[in-house]
């Protein structure tokens, strides 16, 4: 975990094992799964600031083939707010290459009776490939390269990747923290750290990096778009990303009422602190925002307390157990900092 308060690192710490017999350290690269989704959202927001797109553009304006089977009504905003109706993962990741994944998604149908913008349901992966392809079509640069050059490098996140370059994989291999399934008595490799998983980009789920660098990304958002002299976004754009763009809708994936920003999750404790999925614990202010990663991680910022937390486990114990440990650990951080 990495904890920052008032822009300063107060804890950058690790415990446990990266693999059996190998101590986990703060320098290990962990897979952040969906806790990295806001990175792609920021890339889209950068293009909006440059007037290279608008959030209300139909996706098909940039990807004409996406219009197949009635998807012409889907906008970029629908993708960011998980209201497009594209929850099924047809991408074929990681075995399909990028172009194959995009072709599969463009050929897919929306869910039956789904009116984009009027129903909500978390899209784990598919819509994020399309957001990544929009970045590629608009800029001519692959999403992982765009993010590396325009976000990670300026923020000094030099060991964070949406996709590890083939040429760097061997050198980074000793620093990869293997993800495990820990639901049973035995420790089981989740098989999510293969060369294909590491080197192929899934913009909504493939971010890997040390907690200290993920914290820098969320600190940039907390600061209103800048960090250590590097400006990524205007403050007004960050305010829009973290504000409640979708309010009071039942999320058909999580089966829970959830509000949503633009690729970022506001604090949804108002709908049930003990039941809300991937929340920010019992102590976070109503203004907290961020994103969780499947059974493993969270990146968050709390403006009221000038606090950033990047927290990840490399063991997946099942949803119920993870949600409990996540709430308890976040609460403990707030308590230790006397922020209750």
Question: Can you walk me through this structure?
Answer:
- The chain is globular.
- It is 31% helix and 17% strand.
- The chain is an alpha+beta fold and 340 residues long.
- It is built from eleven helices and 17 strands.
- The protein has one domain: 3-Layer(aba) Sandwich (Beta-lactamase), CATH 3.40.710.
- It has helices at 37-49, 59-62, 76-80, 98-107, 126-139, 143-152, 166-172, 195-199, 211-222, 235-242, 319-336; strands at 2-5, 8-12, 17-19, 22-23, 30-31, 180-181, 188-189, 208-209, 226-227, 230-231, 246-251, 256-260, 265-266, 289-293, 297-302, 307-312, 315-316.
- The strands form six sheets. A six-stranded antiparallel β-sheet has the order 2-1-16-15-14-13, sandwiched between helices. A three-stranded mixed β-sheet has the order 7-6-17, with no helix packed on it.
- A hairpin with a 3-residue loop joins strand 14 (289-293) and strand 15 (297-302).
- The mean pLDDT is 97.
| Overall 3D form | globular
CATH topology: Beta-lactamase
Q: What's the CATH class, please?
A: Alpha Beta
**Any idea what the CATH superfamily is called?**
DD-peptidase/beta-lactamase superfamily
Write the layout of secondary structure elements.
Layout: E1 2-5, E2 8-12, E3 17-19, E4 22-23, E5 30-31, H1 37-49, H2 59-62, H3 76-80, H4 98-107, H5 126-139, H6 143-152, H7 166-172, E6 180-181, E7 188-189, H8 195-199, E8 208-209, H9 211-222, E9 226-227, E10 230-231, H10 235-242, E11 246-251, E12 256-260, E13 265-266, E14 289-293, E15 297-302, E16 307-312, E17 315-316, H11 319-336
Parallel strand pairs: 6-17
Antiparallel strand pairs: 1-2, 1-16, 3-4, 5-8, 6-7, 9-10, 11-12, 13-14, 14-15, 15-16
């Amino acid at each position: 975990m990495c904890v920052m308060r008032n822009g300063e690192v107060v804890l950058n710490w690790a415990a446990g094992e990266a693999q059996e017999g190998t101590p986990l350290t703060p320098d290990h690269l962990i897979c952040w799964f969906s806790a990295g989704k806001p990175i792609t959202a920021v890339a889209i927001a950068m293009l909006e600031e440059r007037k290279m797109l608008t959030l209300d553009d139909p996706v098909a304006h940039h990807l004409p083939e996406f219009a197949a089977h009635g998807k012409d009504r889907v906008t970029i905003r629908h993708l960011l707010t998980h209201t497009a109706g594209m929850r099924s993962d047809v991408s074929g990741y990681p075995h399909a290459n990028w172009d194959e994944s995009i072709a599969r998604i463009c050929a897919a149908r929306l869910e039956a009776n789904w009116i984009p913008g009027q129903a909500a349901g978390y899209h784990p992966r598919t819509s994020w490939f399309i957001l990544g392809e929009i970045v590629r079509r608009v800029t001519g640069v692959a999403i992982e390269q765009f993010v590396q050059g325009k976000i990670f490098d300026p923020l000094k996140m030099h060991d964070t990747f949406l996709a590890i370059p083939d040429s760097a994989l061997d050198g980074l291999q000793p620093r990869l923290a293997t993800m495990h399934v820990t639901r049973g008595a035995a420790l089981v490799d989740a098989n999510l750290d293969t060369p294909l998983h590491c080197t192929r980009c899934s913009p909504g789920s493939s971010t890997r990096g040390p907690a200290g660098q993920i914290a820098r990304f969320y600190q940039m958002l907390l600061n209103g778009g800048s960090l250590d002299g590097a400006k990524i976004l205007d403050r007004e754009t960050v305010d829009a990303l973290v504000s409640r763009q979708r309010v009071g809708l039942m999320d058909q994936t999580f089966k829970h009422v959830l509000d949503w920003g633009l690729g970022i999750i506001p604090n949804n404790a108002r709908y049930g602190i003990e039941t809300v999925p991937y929340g920010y614990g019992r102590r976070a202010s109503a203004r907290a925002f961020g994103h969780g990663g499947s059974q493993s991680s969270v990146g968050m910022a709390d403006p009221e307390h000038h606090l950033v937390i990047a927290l990840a486990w490399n063991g997946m114990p099942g949803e119920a157990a993870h949600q409990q440990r996540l709430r308890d650990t976040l609460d403990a951080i707030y308590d230790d900092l006397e922020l209750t």
